[in-house]
Structures are given as C-alpha cells and as structure tokens.
C-alpha cells in the first residue's frame, strides 16, 4: 500500500494537535509496512527546520519532501503567508503537486485545505483513491474569535468541502461519533466512513524525563490554545486564584502560543497578584512537551461547552492521560464516554469557575487518590487511544477502501 500525504507543515517538526494526530497515524501505518511519502506544500517554519530536514528527508522509512524552499518564521511573516503568500506560492507548487498525483496509483490524503482540495479535484482521470480525515466541525469559525477575512475563507472552505470535495472522496475518517453522524447525511454509496478516536503514542510519555529548565515542581500545567472560547484558560486562572493560598507550594504553567486572549490573561494574572505563581511560558517544540506534562502533578483542561467541543476531541487530553498523572477536565463533547469522575479523571462542569476549583481541590487535597486516578486514566488511553491499536483499524479500513475503489 502506498500513500501520498499533502501537508502544509512537517508533523515531525511542529507542535500542534493536528501535527500530533498526523504523526501518530503516519507512524502507525509505517510500522505496518505502508509506504508513505509526505509532500510539504507550505514553507519551512524556521532556519533550524530547513537545516535539519533539507529538501528531502527520510525518517525511518517515511519520505518527507518539501515542494518549496522558503523560510517563514516570524508572526507577521506567517500572517502574510496565510493571507497572501500561500496563495501566490500555490501558483508555483500547483504543477508540482499535479505532477506527483496525475499517474499515481495509490492513496492520496490531504491536509484540510481548500486550495489543495481544488488542485486534487482538478486532476483528470484519477487513478488514486482519495481519503480525508476530520477532527472538528468546519463551521466553528462562526463561534470563535476571528476577523472578517478569516470568516470569509472559512465559509468558502466549508462550502467547497460539502459541495465538491466530499463527493470526490472514497473514504472519510472522523474523530468522533458526533462528526460521523453529521456527515452520514452527506454520504453516498461510494463513500466509506470510519470512526477513529484520537490517537496517542504512549511510548512518548512512558519514560521518566528530567524537569525542564524554567519549571519548578510541584506544578500544575495546561497545554493548548490560549483561547478562552476554545480551551477556557480564563476559567483556569480564576480557579487557581481561589486555591493558591490553600496550596502555596504549587505553581501554574500555561503552555501555548500567543493568542487574541493572551493580553487579557496577563492582566488577570496581575489583577490577582499571581505574577510569581502563574506563568505563561509560550510555545514549545513537540519533543519538549512530554517532559513538561510528565513532571506536572496535575494536568488541566478547562474546555467550555462549544460547537468545537461537541464535534471534536482534544488531542491534549490523550497526551495528558498517557503520562499517568491526574487530570482535571470539563464534562464536554464525548469525553464522558471514555472517562469516569473520581475513577479516571476529576470532572468539572463546563463554564463554571467554582466547579473547576472544586475539581482541582479534590486532586490536590488527596495526592494518593489522585495518583491512583492518574494510573486509571492511562489505562483508558491504552485501551481507547493507543496509536498501535488505532493504526491497525485504519490500515484495514484503507485496504477496504482501496480494494473497493479498484474493483
């Protein structure tokens, strides 16, 4: 089996939920003997990435090839690229992508990107099998912060997927049953659907790792998007402010890139006088995350109830659980289908500062119980989110889709 995967960023380099999802599935399939080639149509994110990976790179049998040679690293460079540069660049890379795919007789899997979808659908007499994966609703931009241009692009993306690209698909992978049921109404006889929960590489979080520089134990950690609508960071800061005097040894570390809500978080930290207790640490590379969360005593996910939470499932939760450390999370989406309050997680009600405060208190007041709950949480990850198990399910699904498309 051969798969060509079109991605904007190299998942072996960037740290994001999307990259982690790609990487676990790619590595899992590779271990099962699937020949995988990743075509990077975006830019290098830093000179370090360019020096490390070059134009072509082989990672344990997975071939990585960059279709461009530019480095776009800074915030303003990335913004220019996302709005303007990317579209100009695709004029050049379009022919390269078509050349890669026009006679390819295997499986093509693309990043969820409208420009790439359009290039793929324009290829005549396709001999390849086309699949896609979705981990959240496409209309969440209506509910999250963003500017008019972002909403316009997102609307166009959703419309193109539902009206054009979905009809071209042979196989469609959905992270949650909510998404699966949603897309069943778009389904046709040709399209095969698979519910594939989030995946985590448990081995990344099994080892004892040294405490990272700049972190002081004992600490509570949050890793995610510094966005109140998506991940509820404000609720976490408010809740910690209520209990920090009760547990003076603990610090709170917030891990994530700058976001629209970041300045307000800083103001809130100052308002509570928590400058020596709560620290926004910014973004870290993927290979730095395991040590950060493995050495935390408590891991937090104060996600509010939202359209995004209903359709998606947080990758960070799988990684949290994989550490074997206790987790405080909100009861949103399909999370309660896997975890039990007081057994494998400390649950809080979404949107409630008091509820999240109580959940954190429960964990910090009884460390022995918390450690047992953390171990049970890892068992849940081993059973339901194990990369090796999920990869085998995906492998057999792809074989079925490919066979049906070839017959």
Explain the overall architecture:
Helix 1 (17-31) crosses helix 15, helix 3 runs parallel beside helix 4 (114-121) and helix 4 (114-121) runs parallel beside helix 5. This protein has helices at residues 17-31, 47-53, 75-101, 114-121, 148-168, 177-184, 228-231, 233-243, 262-271, 289-294, 307-311, 315-322, 353-365, 367-384, 387-406, and strands at 2-7, 35-40, 56-59, 62-66, 107-110, 129-134, 171-174, 192-195, 219-223, 251-255, 278-282, 298-301, 327-330, 346-348. The longest helix has 27 residues, at 75-101. The protein folds into 2 domains: 2-199 and 387-406, Rossmann fold; 202-384, 3-Layer(aba) Sandwich (Rossmann fold). The protein has an 8-stranded mixed beta sheet with strand order 3-4-2-1-5-6-7-8. Strands 11-10-9-12-13-14 form a 6-stranded parallel beta sheet, with helices on both faces. The model has no long low-confidence stretch (mean pLDDT 91). The chain is an alpha/beta fold. It is 44% helix and 16% strand. The chain has 15 helices and 14 strands. It is globular, with a radius of gyration of 21 Å.
